[in-house]
Amino acid sequence: MLRNRNKSIIISYYTLRRLIGILGILLPFICMFGGLAAGIEVQSSVSAYYHSNMRELFTGLMSCMAVFLLTY
Q: Is residue 70 packed enough to be buried (19+ CB in 10 Å), middle (13-18) or exposed (0-12)?
């Protein structure tokens, strides 16, 4: 029983690490393509999307990453 519990915890940490990495890698691309779809030109930095119409998406993605990091 203890082995099954440890295995599920390891899978959980592995999944969290993977999600954090995927979101971190995709964040600039999601902001860039979302901005282009909304008619916003490519910004000079990722944080510049906060001051554009992409604010909700940017803060949502950052909040997801924060929750994943807190649970990790």
A: exposed
Quote the DSSP letter at residue 52: S
Domain-by-domain residue ranges, the chain?
Answer: 2-71
- State which amino acid sits at residue 60: G
pLDDT in tens, 6-65: 666 666 788 888 888 998 999 999 999 999 998 989 999 998 999 988 899 899 989 988
In the numeric block, the tokens 């990495």 are attached to 21
Q: Provide long-range contacts, Cβ within 8 A and 24+ apart, for 25-32.
A: 27/61, 27/62, 27/65, 30/57, 30/61, 31/57, 31/58, 31/61
pTM for the whole structure: 0.73
Identify how many contiguous H helices and E strands the chain contains and give both numbers: 2, 0
